[in-house]
Amino acid sequence: MSRALLVSPSPAARAAEERLRATYEFVPPAEAEMIVALGGDGYMLQVLHHMLESRSIKPVFGMNLGTVGFLMNEWRLDRLEQRIASAKPFKVNPLRMSVITVEGEEISLPAINEVSLLRETRQTARIEVSVNDRVALPELVCDGVLVATPAGSTAYNLSAHGPILPLGSGLIALTPISPFRPRRWRGAILPESTKVRFRILDPHKRPVSAVGDQREVRDVATVEVAIDRTTPLTLLFDPEHTLDDRIAAEQFIA
Description:
- It is a single chain.
- By secondary structure, this protein is an alpha+beta fold.
- The chain folds into two domains: 3-93 and 231-250, Probable inorganic polyphosphate/atp-NAD kinase, domain 1 (Rossmann fold, 3-Layer(aba) Sandwich); 95-227, Sandwich (Tumour Suppressor Smad4).
- The chain contains five helices and 17 strands.
- It has a six-stranded antiparallel beta sheet, with no helix packed on it. Strands 12-11-10-7-14-15 form a six-stranded antiparallel beta sheet, with no helix packed on it.
- The longest helix has 14 residues, at 41-54.
- The protein is elongated and about 60 Å long.
- The relative contact order is 0.18.
């Protein structure tokens, strides 16, 4: 299988690139059947987003030369061809956020981990939350709220005390960030077929931004979030250290 090599700009990744190119053959990305990515989770998200934008979807085998590397395999120089041949594929369906800003601009962006709504000022946000066109919370007073996929449930969602979702669970997490009212609401676990809609109740006095993974849209009026099944992504993992194993293990880390 022909492969391309994409590398983050970090010194560690660049040094590893030299060793890989001296040992294995790679082709330009446009000619490749799959991608090898060197870096951390942030770089992996960049690679996946670029594929979504270019509509050129290929399996990705990542090797960690970043910090956490939750979406990556262990960095090793040896046996790359054998590792790719025996890798276990995981399909990841990204979220799609459809935004209308205060000025009426319409923006659509994908998100592999989560879509987050965040207050822009010192004042709390006031957000109406609808689930499948039914108002579930007439007013959520909070620092923000997010929708996370299973792949992203151990990232920002977990830091906000949201649930860890196993891959293949067919679920998404709806998690508040520092909720003030309703004070005891801790979020919801919803079927992945659910459409979640947020309406900012006072967007001029209490402005809110929407962030899809790493890309932000400021001063939003409404945001709709749903799973996008038209562009599934494939991540490749070593059989002994797969993503579902990692997600399960996170539930036992104190």
